[in-house]
Amino acid sequence: MSKIYVGNLPFSVTEDSLRTLFSQHGVVESVALINDRDTGQPRGFGFVEMPRTDAARAIQGLNGQDMGGRALKVNEAQDKPRGGGSQRRW
């Protein structure tokens, strides 16, 4: 299973519309759109999980594709660094 980062999404996108777009390239296991924790408004990015071979095909086919007047940024999701707070360097 691969987790795909999808950025530069139009704020009007829904989980269903993103699932439909990615399902053209294979089996979609899950879709998650990220909202701002304080306002609840969309942040313009999300994640899609697909089997590894389908994910590679989706990344290849959808990166840079126009959706609602915006060029999608599609790539393999990177793990978020662990740890909280700011990273201070003395």
Automatic annotation (TrEMBL):
Pfam families the record matches: RRM_1
Gene3D superfamilies with a match to the protein in the record: 3.30.70.330
RRM domain span: 2-79
Keywords recorded for this protein, A-Z: RNA-binding
InterPro entries recorded: Nucleotide-bd_a/b_plait_sf (IPR012677), RBD_domain_sf (IPR035979), RRM2_NsCP33-like (IPR048289), RRM_dom (IPR000504), SLIRP/GR-RBP-like (IPR052462)
Matches recorded under PROSITE patterns: RRM
GO molecular function: RNA binding
Region of interest: Disordered: 66-90
Protein name from the UniProt record: RNA-binding protein
